[in-house]
């Protein structure tokens, strides 16, 4: 066993950290900070060491932490086996001693272990950051130092070293990176100091740029190597270590920001902080308040304090928050009412967090009150349990049988050491079950026992259900919190993937308990939506199709005799008998009820408990069951699990079993107590309990997606259902919490229209999306004060737009389907034109709310298509093309089409012909010629049945597809005159379809303009068109036709013409990186319908580093060996290397050997000037892409004030906003930051439109930004027509403009920025935003986005996105733009700003 840090003696001469020390921090402290994000933890850790008399005072750790430490130690020991090791001495080692050991070793590559170092002083680094003080750091001991050594003939030795840490974790965390980063910085400093002291030594020390974390692999004994860039981490870590940490430690403790929350569980200072929260009445008196929400409320207090500058009294935070609800003088508005008028978005968030009762606020009581305005504040101040009065969809109102699950997981081994399963019936004698099992020496592994016990409970419930015949049996499974939900989910999924697990038992457990997307990792997919909902057979089905679906839904023994009408009726009956887990007549709200309910989540949603910071099971029992806090001990949070674990580690099996049994009993008591309190509340309010708890438990069935036998299709079916459920949940939560508060009042009827009306917009302009082209009625208009939106059954209307709306059997006149047609800003404010389907809905004089609803016309088409493919696979001798592509696309794609050799020779002749045509004409543009890599791509298309055309932004993918389509028809027309050759083209967006058809039409016009073309008769039989609802039979189309349409239009055409595929030879999919795999299945099915798929070609173009499909659900990235990537785009799914591995798993290195045999790369960039092209290439590692345009930016004659900005030779410009305000920026509401950015963008747009040719795009990540920019442009009367477009990133993909402004200036609000790092640093979104420009790209940024917190590097994708932003700024001209946030008018003269910019640019030498 190697020595621990505590065992290593401190030799003479090494500064020890003892009682006389000013304190110090360790690398572990730095890592802990990036787990808890608590500044106070750093301060107290340093202070404790300053006061400590000996090492033991600060080395004691909990039993739980000891177990985790042993887990890590065992993992490190396992890793050492088989490595070439160099062991260090048993004392703190110096740099010279280590270098001596390394140089004496004869090996060229090995690992140094068991070495500990004294930290350097870092005096240079602290001075460079101008820190107010220095900080001492303790000794440190990296797990592994990987060494590469090379000694040349002159005895000069080069040593390259890399830091590796072993972590027994499931994934690489930011805390791991921080710890390794500190080791790297300290070692680098130590080595540099040694080199400076020994300048004549023939040794060179090079720190490797890669930090490595070795974590256990899920499917191998070898570790998974998590790597990150040290150079990317270094500047952020140095800011934290040498600027932020000294600033924290230099403050008085009372001035150090902190929060008491659930992350504090297990912290050694937890009890101290909890007492301070209570004594000082801090905001943490409100339990379960996230760090983001805590910071938000503090900023609101600061903002309101600044608005009310006369109020200077210092009072507790919780009381100050309470004062916002009351005016200070009679006849005044309460501060919260002023907030509602000035910044409604901020008010809405406060309202949701405090559950404000606006009616009580408007009473404007002065002085003492009963705190009726907020049950949250009332609970915190009066120390009472308060019912919040909001609906809760995640907890049932009642059930017949409740099953409570308790599990104990050993943190040292991640194995199950004990469990309890307790079933309680509402009706005595229906079903009772109570069993606890604890692992011991006789039965160390109880995993199988848990699965079998749980499966037996499920079997007994199924038997009871079957004995009830047509009666319902409502069953609900409960755990305490989300951690238990995740533990059981991960446990069951892992067991399903184990070869020794009982398949039938695990299948029962997953089918009964899980509705999470992680089941896609298994072969068991439970049904989420009843078949009758998603499969509605048409009466136009042919008899063979009716029989096919009867076999699917009726089973192998179904009666297939009779006429079509009889068979159809039998099919409808089979579908109606398919089990649904929900009660008869259930509405969409009940789809929110999980199969495995978290009691803690339900308590948090419905009740305010006066427990500071956070609470666990004990607190729930004390407050909800016993009625008061009776505990004299500090048993808090998850201490129940710790107590159970302590008993088990002590070997007391009986006590462990009793504690597990008590845990299950307490779950039942809390569940019952919660319902009792809700019932009492409803009785006092004289309302029905359904108003709070609208859901009852599910009618017990265990149903699987078995309509498809193929495992890939089954997973796609589950994904389609999961997407629909996820979208529904998103809309329901938005309606419940009013997260998109759109408030309208009726104004008038639109003239000359029977269905359109004008409304005034009072709030929520940012959430209004116009969609006049596609009338889907994706909104509902609800009268203010009505609960119709909460009771509306989305699933009853998800694919229809009825004139009348029914809820619970009653026709409602306070709700209507709505479609937003237009938004206008005039002298009388903002108005919206809405098209309604509202029979009987009274509008005049009304105020209304606009809410999103579930609209889904396509999931049923996906379900039917997947079933059809599966049935074909079972009945046909040849596997369908779509499934063959999923199985092994490389084999399918390598099949050589007929006439490939002849076409390749003919294509060479055509290239020569068109080159001669353009040479004779002297044309500069040559659209009919394939240029460079385009020519190679087309040859690949000719030689394969499947081709993936890959290219970064601006590389002419759509042009290549259009020219390829035209050339394929020309080759066929020349080779076989009079023989039909037709092409289907599809894409995910209508914009991409329009782009393709317009490019193709220009090419057709070009080829038709060539006079006297030999063998050119094919041109007269050529047609291109869009697929619409009135498409003719394919056989009636011209011989050479190209039909473009969405997959839904093509599918609809196939439904009326089942053999449509016989008329087409090629399928082209553009923007394949945006098309989901299931959607592509429809298009491929259309191509293969009614004919053999042998000679078909499929061409897919896209870029997997641009935006992926828009999915509501979250899906596992892992797949089994050989399994395709089903949960992304069709391009990602089919891009596989020679070994079959998905390219998306190989990072972003760009080369043919990585991309595999089917992918052909486009290397010429036709969109961007050189600087933009070179920058964009940086995100594609290894890509050698060639710009085809010059760097000249066409501009008009510019006034002097603009030359510095817009005539810089750089096509990249970064505008860093520096807002000026008397109030700290984070205390200003987010809306003001958006408006400030929009003001700057408005000025820029006006200048660009006046002085440049071409189009200008403004790309906004947030819809609220889009709304703010449009409002500024309207107020400034900027009317650029088609030359200006303001939209979100998602809507801009595939389009381009001469100048693009990418708006990331909203990040001046640091708290908001820090809370959405995943959104801001989204690699693919940034790639799209910064690659739309042809001539110039302007990034509106902030200091925050350039210097984010270290946590930005927590994920690989965020690391790459941050690196992309850094590269942009490094290559761009940079302008610091000071702008007033407060009191600055949107109509500020342009010349003032442009003069400021010009001066700044000229001072930088760019004017």
Overall mean pLDDT stands at: 86
Quaternary arrangement of the chains shown?
single chain
How far do the termini sit from each other?
Answer: 67 Å
Number of helices: 47
**Cα-atom radius of gyration:** 34 Å
Largest sheet: 7 strands, mixed
Shape: globular
Tell me how many strands there are: 38
**Portion of residues within helices:** 40-55%
The poorly predicted ranges are 1-20, 629-635, 1194-1201, 1383-1407
Protein name: DNA2/NAM7 helicase-like C-terminal domain-containing protein
Domain DNA2/NAM7 helicase-like C-terminal: 1159-1342
GO molecular function, one term: ATP binding
InterPro entries: Coronavir_polyprotein_1ab, DNA2/NAM7-like_C, P-loop_NTPase, SF1_C_Upf1
Characterization of this structure:
Keywords: ATP-binding, Helicase, Hydrolase, Nucleotide-binding. It comes from Spizellomyces punctatus (strain DAOM BR117). Residues 1159-1342 form the DNA2/NAM7 helicase-like C-terminal domain. One of its GO terms (molecular function) is hydrolase activity. The chain contains 47 helices and 38 strands. The protein is 41% helix and 15% strand. α27 (859-875) crosses α34. Residues 1-20, 629-635, 1194-1201 and 1383-1407 have low confidence and may be disordered. The strands form eight sheets. Strands 1, 2, 3, 4, 5, 6 and 7 form a seven-stranded mixed beta sheet that branches. α34 links the parallel β28 (1066-1070) and β29. With 1407 residues, it is an alpha/beta fold.
């Amino acid at each position: 066993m190697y020595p621990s840090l505590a065992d290593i003696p401190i030799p003479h001469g090494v500064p020890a950290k003892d009682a006389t020390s000013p304190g110090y921090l360790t690398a572990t402290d730095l890592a802990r900070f990036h787990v808890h994000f608590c500044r106070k933890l750093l301060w107290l850790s340093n202070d404790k060491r300053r006061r400590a008399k000996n090492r033991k005072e600060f080395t004691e750790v909990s039993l739980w932490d000891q177990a985790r430490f042993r887990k890590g130690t065992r993992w490190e020991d396992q890793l050492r086996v088989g490595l070439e090791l160099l062991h260090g001495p048993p004392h703190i080692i110096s740099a010279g001693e280590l270098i001596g050991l390394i140089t004496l070793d004869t090996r060229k590559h090995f690992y140094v272990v068991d070495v500990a170092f004294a930290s350097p002083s870092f005096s240079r680094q602290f001075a460079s950051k101008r820190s107010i003080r220095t900080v001492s750091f303790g000794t440190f001991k990296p797990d592994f130092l990987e060494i590469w050594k090379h000694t040349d003939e002159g005895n000069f030795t080069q040593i390259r070293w890399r830091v590796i840490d072993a972590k027994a974790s499931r994934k690489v965390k930011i805390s791991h990176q921080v710890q390794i980063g500190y080791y790297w910085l300290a070692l680098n400093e130590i080595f540099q100091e040694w080199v400076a002291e020994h300048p004549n030594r023939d040794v060179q020390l090079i720190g490797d740029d890669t930090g490595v974390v070795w974590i256990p692999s899920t499917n191998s004994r070898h570790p998974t190597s998590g790597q990150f860039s040290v150079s990317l981490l270094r500047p952020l870590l140095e800011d934290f270590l040498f600027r932020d940490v000294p600033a924290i430690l230099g403050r008085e403790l009372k001035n150090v920001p902190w929060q008491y929350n659930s992350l504090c569980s297990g912290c050694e200072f937890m009890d101290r902080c909890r007492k301070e929260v209570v004594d000082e009445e801090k905001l943490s008196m409100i339990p379960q308040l996230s760090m983001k929400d805590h910071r938000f409320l503090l900023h609101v207090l600061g903002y309101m304090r600044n608005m009310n500058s006369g109020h200077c009294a210092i009072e507790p935070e919780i009381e100050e928050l309470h004062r916002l609800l009351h005016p200070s003088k009679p006849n005044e508005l309460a501060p919260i009412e002023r907030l509602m008028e000035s910044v409604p978005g901020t008010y809405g968030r406060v309202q949701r967090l405090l559950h404000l009762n606006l009616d009580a606020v408007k009473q404007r009581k002065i002085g003492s009150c009963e705190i009726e305005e907020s049950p949250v504040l009332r609970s915190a101040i009066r120390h009472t349990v308060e019912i919040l009065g909001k609906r809760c969809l995640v907890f049932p109102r009642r059930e017949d049988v409740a099953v409570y699950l308790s599990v104990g997981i050993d943190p040292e081994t991640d194995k199950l050491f004990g469990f309890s399963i307790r079933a309680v019936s509402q009706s005595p004698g229906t079903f009772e079950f109570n069993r606890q099992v604890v692992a011991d020496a006789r039965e160390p592994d109880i995993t199988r026992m848990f699965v079998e016990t749980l499966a037996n409970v499920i079997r007994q419930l199924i038997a009871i259900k079957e004995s009830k015949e047509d009666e319902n049996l409502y069953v609900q499974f409960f755990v305490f919190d989300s951690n238990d939900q995740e533990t059981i989910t991960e446990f069951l999924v892992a067991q399903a993937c184990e070869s020794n697990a009982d398949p039938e038992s695990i299948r029962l457990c997953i089918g009964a308990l899980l509705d999470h997307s992680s089941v896609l990792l298994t072969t068991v997919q439970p049904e989420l939506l009843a078949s009758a909902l998603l499969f509605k057979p048409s009466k136009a089905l042919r008899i063979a199709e009716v029989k096919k679906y009867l076999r699917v839904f009726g089973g192998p023994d179904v009666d297939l005799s009779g006429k079509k009408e009889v068979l159809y009726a039998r099919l409808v009956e089979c579908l109606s008998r398919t089990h649904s887990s929900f009660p008869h007549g259930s509405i969409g709200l009940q789809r929110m009820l999980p199969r495995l309910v978290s009691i803690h989540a339900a308590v948090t949603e419905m009740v305010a408990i006066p427990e500071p910071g956070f609470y666990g099971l004990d607190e729930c029992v004390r407050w909800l069951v016993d009625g008061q806090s009776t505990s004299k001990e500090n048993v808090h949070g998850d201490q129940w699990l710790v107590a159970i674990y302590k008993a088990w580690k002590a070997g007391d099996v009986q006590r462990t079993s009793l504690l597990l049994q008590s845990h299950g009993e307490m779950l039942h008591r809390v569940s019952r107590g919660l319902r009792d309190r809700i019932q009492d509340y409803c009785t006092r309010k004289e309302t029905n309990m359904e108003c709070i708890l609208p859901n009852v438990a599910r009618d017990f069935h265990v149903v699987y997606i078995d309509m498809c036998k193929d495992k890939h299709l089954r997973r796609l079916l589950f994904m389609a259902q999961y997407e629909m459920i996820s979208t529904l949940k998103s809309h329901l939560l938005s309606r419940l919490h009013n997260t998109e508060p759109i408030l309208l009042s009726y104004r008038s009827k639109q003239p000359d229209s029977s269905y359109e009306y004008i409304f005034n917009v009072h709030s929520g302009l940012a959430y209004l999306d116009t969609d006049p082209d596609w009338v889907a009625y994706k909104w509902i208009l609800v009268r203010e004060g009505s609960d119709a939106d909460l009771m509306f059954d989305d699933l009853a209307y998800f694919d229809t737009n009825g004139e009348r709306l029914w809820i619970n059997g009653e026709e409602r006149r306070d709700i209507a389907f709505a479609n937003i047609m237009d938004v206008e800003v005039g002298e009388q404010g903002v108005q919206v034109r809405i098209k309604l389907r509202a029979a009987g809905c009274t509008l005049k004089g009304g105020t209304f709310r606009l809410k999103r609803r579930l609209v889904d016309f396509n999931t049923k088409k996906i379900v039917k298509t997947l079933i059809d493919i599966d049935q074909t696979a079972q009945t046909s001798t040849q596997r369908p093309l779509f499934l063959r592509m999923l199985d092994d696309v490389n084999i399918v794609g390598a099949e050589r089409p007929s006439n490939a050799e002849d076409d390749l020779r003919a294509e060479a002749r055509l290239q020569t012909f068109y080159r001669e045509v353009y040479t004779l004409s002297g044309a500069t543009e040559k659209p009919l010629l394939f240029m460079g890599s385009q020519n190679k791509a087309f040859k690949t298309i000719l030689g394969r049945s499947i081709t993936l055309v890959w290219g970064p932004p601006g590389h002419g993918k759509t042009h290549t597809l259009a020219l390829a389509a035209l050339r394929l028809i020309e080759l066929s027309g020349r080779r076989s005159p009079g023989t039909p050759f037709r092409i289907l083209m599809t894409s995910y967006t209508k914009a991409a379809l329009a782009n393709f058809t317009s490019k193709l039409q220009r090419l057709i016009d070009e080829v038709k303009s060539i006079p006297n073309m030999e063998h050119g008769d094919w041109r007269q039989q050529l047609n291109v068109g869009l697929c619409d609802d009135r498409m003719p039979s394919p056989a009636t189309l011209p011989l050479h036709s190209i039909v473009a349409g969405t997959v839904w239009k093509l599918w609809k055409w196939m439904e009326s013409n089942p053999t449509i595929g016989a008329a087409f030879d090629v399928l082209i999919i553009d923007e394949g990186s945006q098309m989901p795999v299931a959607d592509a299945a429809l298009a491929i099915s259309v191509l293969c319908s009614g004919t053999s798929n042998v000679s078909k070609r499929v061409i897919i173009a896209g870029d997997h580093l641009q935006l992926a499909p828009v999915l509501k659900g979250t899906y596992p990235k892992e797949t089994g060996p050989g399994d395709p990537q089903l949960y992304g785009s069709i391009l990602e799914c089919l891009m596989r290397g020679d070994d079959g591995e998905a390219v998306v798993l190989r990072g972003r290195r760009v080369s043919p050997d990585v991309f595999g045999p089917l992918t052909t790369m486009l290397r010429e960039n036709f969109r961007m000037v050189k600087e933009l092209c070179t920058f964009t290439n940086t995100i594609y590692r290894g890509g050698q892409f060639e710009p085809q345009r010059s760097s000249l930016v066409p501009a008009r004659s510019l006034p002097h004030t603009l030359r510095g900005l817009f005539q810089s030779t750089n096509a990249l410009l970064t505008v860093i906003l520096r807002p000026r305000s008397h109030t700290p920026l984070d205390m200003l509401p987010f809306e003001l930051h958006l408006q400030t950015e929009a003001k700057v963008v408005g000025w820029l747009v006006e200048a660009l439109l006046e002085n440049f040719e071409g189009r200008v795009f403004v790309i906004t990540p947030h819809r609220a930004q889009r709304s703010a920019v449009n409002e500024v442009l309207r107020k400034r009367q900027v009317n650029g027509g088609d030359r200006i477009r303001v939209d979100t990133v998602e809507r801009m993909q595939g389009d381009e403009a001469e100048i693009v402004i990418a708006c990331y200036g909203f990040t001046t609000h640091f708290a908001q920025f820090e809370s959405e790092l995943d959104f801001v640093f989204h690699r693919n979104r940034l790639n799209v935003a910064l690659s739309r420009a042809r001539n110039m790209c302007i990034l509106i940024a902030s200091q925050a986005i350039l210097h984010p917190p270290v946590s930005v590097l927590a994920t690989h994708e965020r690391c790459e996105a941050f690196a992309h932003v850094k590269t942009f700024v490094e290559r761009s001209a940079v302008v610091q733009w000071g702008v007033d946030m407060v009191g600055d008018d949107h109509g500020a003269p342009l010349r003032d700003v442009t003069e400021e910019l010009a001066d700044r640019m000229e001072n930088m030498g760019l004017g």
